[in-house]
Amino acid sequence: MSQVEKKAGLLRRTSSSKKPLKEKVVLMYDEIFAKEDPAKNNPRFWDELFLMKVNLEYLESKLESIDGEDVQCIQDNINSLFHHCVQALGEEHQIKVVNALQTLCALFRGVHQKNKSASGFDIINMLMGFDKAEQRMKDLMESLDSLLCGDGSESLKSLCLKLLLCLVTVTDNISQNTILEYVMINSIFEAILQILSDSSSRGQHGYDAVVLLALLVNYRKYESVNPYIVKLSIVDDEPTLDGMGMVVHQALTEYNRQYKDKEEEHQGGFFSALTSMVGSMFIADADEKLSVQTNEAILLALYEAVHLNRNFITVLAQSHPEIDIVPAPPTPTPTTPTTPLGTTPPSLDVINNPELPLDPNLQTSNLLITFLKYASIVMQDTKDEHRLNSARLCLIILTCIAEDQYADAFLHDDNMNFRVTLHRMPMRHRKKAVGKNIPSRPLVCAVLDLMVEFVVTHMMKDFPFDLYLRCVQIIHKLLCYQKKCRIRLHYTWRELWSALINLLKFLMSNETSLLSKHNIFHLALLIVNLFNMFITYGDTFLPTSNSYDELYYEIVRMHQVFDNLYCMVLRVSTNAGQWKEAASKVTHALVNIRAIINHFNPKIESYAAVNHISQLSEEQVLEVVRSNYDTLTLKLQDGLDQFERYSEQPKEAAFFKELVRSISLNVRKNVSLNTLSQDVLLKEFSTIS
Amino acid sequence: MSLRLETLTESVLNQDNQTFTWMTPSFALRPTNSFVWTRPTAGVRIKVQPTEQRIKLRPVEEGGASSSSPSLSLPSTPSSCGHPQPVTPPLGVINEGVAELRLVIDAEVAQRACEEVLEKVKLQQVEVPPPPDEAPPPAVKPPEIREGEDSSQGSVKSARRRQRHNPSKQSWLLRLFESKLFDVSMAISYLHNSKEPGVQAYIGNRLFSFAHEEVDFYLPQLLNMYIHMDEDVGDAIKPYLVHRCRQSISFSLRCAWLLGAYSSDMHISTQRHSRGTKLRKLILSDELKPAAPRVRREALTLTPFCPVPAGPLPGEHGLSPSKRTHQRSKSDATVSISLSSNLKRTASNPKVESSPDEDCSSSSDSLEFDSGPPVRLAPQREFIKSLIGIGKRLATLPTKEQKTQRLISELSLLNHKLPARVWLPTAAFDHHVARVPHTQAVVLNSKDKAPYLIYVEVLECENFETSSVPARIPENRIRSTRSVENLPDCGMTAEQRAGSFSIVPNYDNDDEAWSVDDIGELQVELPEGHTNSCDNISQFSVDSITSLESKEPIFIAAGDIRRRLSEQLAQAPTTFKRDPEDPSAVALKEPWEEKVRRIREGSPYGHLPTWRLLSVIVKCGDDLRQELLAYQVLQQLQSIWQQERVPLWIKPYKILVLSADSGMIEPVMNAVSLHQVKKQSQLSLLDYLLQEHGAPTTEAFLTAQRNFVQSCAGYSLICYLLQVKDRHNGNILLDAGGHIIHIDFGFILSSSPRNLGFETSAFKLTSEFVDVMGGPDGDMFIYFKMLMLQGLIAARKHMDRVLQVVEIMQQGSQLPCFHGSSTMRA
């Protein structure tokens, strides 16, 4: 729309402006890009400039078009423009402030666009001049801080955040953005927190603030001290943390809602397609249509909060009944759209619209439930890069959660029961939407369900090996907690066991293709050790004595898988080679499982022989198991309940670098698209002033 | 079975029943009279030994009960009982005495002075026979006052002397008032029954000398009288109420709540109504602050005896012009007030001089209120309001599950505002509420309302008004710096580190606060006894060792693991299965000790030595005034039975009335309803008890059985006396010791569900109950019957104490239990 309007504006203005066919502001820009000081002839030049409506396109293209040599000549003028922009931020006249903010936006972007290869120092020099840079940036950050914290117009605050987002994302790699060094020194962390702690400002700017924070935290994360990391890790103000959680919650909820809408939209076609038996063709097709753009920025924010701040863990469990959103006072200027320049926050009206406080259909939810639902959607399809990254990040977040004692405590809290509807991938061999009546259970059951679901559904050619590793590790961590705290979770462990055994089976059948890329023995070891946990420590966390029998039953029933695994690892470990050591570890780990198989199989066979039954029923096998425990001796294995703690560096550093890069690109794209539509903003201020 | 019992006991019951009903009509004034009349016989002789006196009294009363002949309840019309005369003239004198007593500092002296004044009244009465003339008192006054100025000590002595000299001329009433036997119960009943302003005013003053707890028990009665009875009673009580309100926030709030609740039945336009409401407003406006820290201690005696503390309340004066003039004329008539207030200023008592504030407040015109916002009561009112608000919102949700989830989330929000200077009024000690463990809260079973049970973590303190409110500890109490520490090469300098750490609140320094970060380091204490059941090897398996040096493989038997699993499962105390339709069953079944331990472990405040766990049921939409009445009756009966050494067991649970349709209830610990027991266990009551306590011959079971019988007998009597209806299994609890406890006294006396007006059986005794007692021929059943009889006799003997509680509350009350005429039988 802006294009058309721009042109119209251009035409209209021609009549009034001195020189035909050019806007006044454009003329003024031209003056700046001339070599002389524009204020020389017109002392009120800068005052006038900021009263003009900014023509971002022109300014940016002008900056881009400067040749290397010209830079030197006009540097003074650009410095001067920057300087006056910063000064104008302190103006009372809000139009000037708005224009100054937008001009700054254009400056940052234009300069970077031009000098993609240039070093950060050159850019700083060009914008502000080396000698004054520190002071200018200090002034800029202080002005932004006071604008954000003051009780000025909401749109103005929003614009400030846009400017900051723009500044943060001008480079592809955030760590190469040297200007951010000044943002580190002159922290706006407190301003961000303030926005998050207040419910009304949170509603309007929360999303931008959270994304900005997530990006800032990732600036030179591994190389230097990032004050934002330090500060974020020690925040303990509950309203603020809650606010942050709420923003994430809303964004994820919105995603889930969109997905559900699409899915329902799709449903009609789904069944007709099913009847026409298009099979696999259809599923691929459906997946494409169902994919909704994932929101990695918000997920990154959630990760940083969970990973850095222990206090944030409580927020995960913090239920969000509708009431605490309701008291948000109506916005001071109700005519203003909530976000004139939104960076595509999924839907801010959801945040603003006070939900009906007493809608009986509304299930009370909390951030963790929403996150689990979100994860279940994201994990369905890991084919494209974005979704794979999202799924990976989800699993990393879950890893952090599973390691945290407090989080575990509420995951296992018997009093906090929820129905969590996880999304399940439509698969040919099983019915979709099996149970509408999921029982209300402790949250950990939902986590385990999600893990089982993942294990079952991703045994494919393009094997997401690291996701499987994380998945199994999460299960292990949860088991360790249950063992330590002697929590007997009423969970159908059988599903987990059979899922894991199937995974082992898959690993073995695809041994050759997988082994070229991954250390499958490591994964196999983890899986076997999960079984060892159940075998040796089952007494501390299994819910019933029957479940222990069932474990043995399941192992004996699937003994072939374990036998094959043993053969394989034995073969690999006896051959000298890359995997020798890894395989021999698995051999050792299998000792108890093999003992069980070797102990019970003959017993069962002889039972069958004695009773002349060819096929034993489950009950009969269990009976045999029960009566033959006493003659079985197991070996106590070391370190079953030990696990490697998650640490971001060095293992995950590369992943996060890439992730931040893609988020930066995405945010930049959105900011640039929307910053141009400033008409609304101007309208607001023209009526005010 | 139950029929059988009725036939067995009916004879006894009926007999007594008759006597009870028979006595009722003329009962209103009888207890007071009988006291007045029976006392003198023994009183003169054994005055110093009240216990002996009681013994003397007993046969008389018991005789009355057992013979059930009316002759012993010594008739005589109330008007002739000797104290109508003293009243009219001494009106002024008593007031004067009151004014004089303002000089006195402590309660004991005050009491003595009271006696002294009464003494004078008597003397006067003797000397100046009943002329209802106002002239004589002023004439007599000067010397008296001087005497008071001299030294109250001396005057008391002289009074004693005089008293001893002419005992025969004493008024019996006065002697009663002076005697050590005169307790709150009697005071209340005289306050209620006496029509004489003088007596009422005297009792109003006497209230100050009783222990606070004793008076507190009768607070509902006092307030109901204040609201619904005539002005004289109100004026007599008011100084005391105001005084107590000044002293204590919790008393202020209790008063305010009760006033609100008991006023609600009246017409809005009624003037009396506005009296109660005015006082309530006054309290809530927080004008009744302790005047000044210095004065507070003296206030104990100073405020009460000002004749005008009612005066400082502008609300009262603004009430109606006629009333004001009326009051003034009254005081003018007695002159003494103006006189004494002048005197007070000139009095040499330094303590009075040192309390100018008090002086101010006693003269109604120069009153100054603190202009500060009423913060004293605000936090607590907000707290209660939010609890009630939650209840109201819950009621709109359709399913139990939703209610529970909503409750949990609402409470977690409430947590953000805690700790604060708020407390649970049902608790017995001073404390601040620190946290509501929201995940433990449960919604209770109710059809259309949403009562809920919350557990509340509190920190005990010296005095909740003055002790500082504990600092908030974030929910997960874990050091917030872990992540910084873990960040690899953060490149922080030592200073930076120190700088960033200093921001962290210093609760980390607390040694007691554990700093367990993650499950890797988590140490779990095994419950005691558990370790014994495991052999050495299994100990190894419990804490696996990571040492790689021990090459020696450790072997364990699979059978052991399996055995341990089943053992531990069997060892665990029986728990109820989680049922979304009945979420409270599990929570209530868990032993209290266990729950306390568990919640303490999970609480950020758990490490503090003053940490305590309380629980409370919040009810909205239910009128708890009847429950309160039942509580008082139960309390009285319990003390009666204790006094008479009848081993009946009942458990009155505390009730806090917040308004006519909301309140709080103190939950009964370790108890689940019979309904829940049956549903969960699918066993008969006897089998369930056997399951819980062991075989029929074990000590544990026998104890439980005895408890069952004693409580069953106690509650059967309660049901009979109070005509408690609606006795379904959901309203009867069974506690861990085997006691049964009746709850929900929503239908007592003349009210009943669906307005049937009657229920066929006098109390609930099912065959299952009898089975627990060993069948209708069992020893325990005989014991049960005996207990019933003893209990009934004891109750009959002290029935006045019980009756009075109920009677006073009948005033102006619209409670369903008071509908109809044949309200009270006992």
Automatic annotation (TrEMBL), chain A:
Transmembrane helix in keyword set: yes
Subcellular location: Membrane
Gene3D superfamilies: Leucine-rich Repeat Variant
Domain Armadillo-like helical: 435-671
GO CC annotations on file: cytosol; membrane
UniProt keyword terms in alphabetical order: Membrane, Transmembrane, Transmembrane helix
InterPro entries the record matches: ARM-like, ARM-type_fold, ARMD3-like, ARMH3_C
Keyword match Transmembrane helix: yes
UniProt protein name: Armadillo-like helical domain-containing protein
Species: Oryzias javanicus
Biological classification of the source: Eukaryota, Metazoa, Chordata, Craniata, Vertebrata
TrEMBL record, chain B:
Known EC number: 2.7.1.67
Region annotated Disordered, chain positions: 58-89, 125-167, 311-374
Residues of the PIK helical domain: 91-285
Keywords noted in UniProt: Kinase, Transferase
Pfam family, one: PI4KB-PIK1_PIK
Enzyme's top EC category: transferase
PI3K/PI4K catalytic domain residues: 590-826
Chief location of this protein within or outside the cell: mitochondrion
Residue spans of biased composition, Polar residues class: 332-352
Compositionally skewed regions (Pro residues) per UniProt: 128-141
Skewed-composition ranges (Low complexity): 66-80, 361-371
Membrane topology term: Peripheral membrane protein
Catalytic activity as recorded in UniProt: a 1,2-diacyl-sn-glycero-3-phospho-(1D-myo-inositol) + ATP = a 1,2-diacyl-sn-glycero-3-phospho-(1D-myo-inositol 4-phosphate) + ADP + H(+)
GO molecular function: 1-phosphatidylinositol 4-kinase activity
Entry's localization field: Mitochondrion outer membrane; Rough endoplasmic reticulum membrane
GO biological process assignments: phosphatidylinositol phosphate biosynthetic process; phosphatidylinositol-mediated signaling
Biased composition, class Basic residues, residue ranges: 158-167
GO CC annotation: mitochondrial outer membrane; rough endoplasmic reticulum membrane
Similarity comment: Belongs to the PI3/PI4-kinase family. Type III PI4K subfamily.
Protein name per the record: Phosphatidylinositol 4-kinase beta
Source organism of the structure: Oryzias javanicus
